[in-house]
Design a protein that fits this description.
Elements (H helix, E strand, L loop, with lengths): L3 H12 L12 H9 L10 H9 L47 H14 L3 H4 L1
């Protein structure tokens, strides 16, 4: 309860005027299994965590909680395209290191990460 996924679900329910109950799973894995097993109707998850399940046919992508369709799911409409405006569940992914990490290590990590972000396969 209180995770970003839970909050975007509650916000979607409010914006779409739905009255549903949030099932307090202990993580994304059990929540996805709940949907696959028909224990509940839907869940919000990050696209990267469900792509394989979508491709295998175990889950159906209904709508994206984002401003635009990503290249990996070009045929899945956004929630706004269905007429429910303002629901954006975009998340940030960050890299952390202990506060006392030596400067040269942070610089090396920064260099390697930035270099990897120019790789066409990673960009895609």
């Amino acid at each position: 309860m209180g995770s970003p996924t839970h909050i975007v679900t509650e916000y979607f329910n409010q914006k779409a005027n739905l009255d549903t109950f949030a099932v307090p799973y202990t993580g994304a894995g059990p929540a996805k299994q709940g949907v696959i097993s028909d224990l509940h109707l839907y869940t919000f998850e990050t696209a990267s965590s469900v792509l394989a399940l979508i491709k295998s046919g175990k889950l159906k992508a209904i709508a994206l909680a984002s401003d635009r369709r990503p290249p990996v799911l070009p045929n899945v409409p956004t929630i706004a395209e269905y007429g429910v405006q303002g629901v954006n569940g975009s998340t940030w992914n960050m890299i952390f290191a202990p506060a006392k990490t030596l400067k040269y290590i942070v610089e090396k990590l920064n260099h390697v990460i930035n270099k990897s972000l120019t790789n066409p396969a990673i960009v895609k």
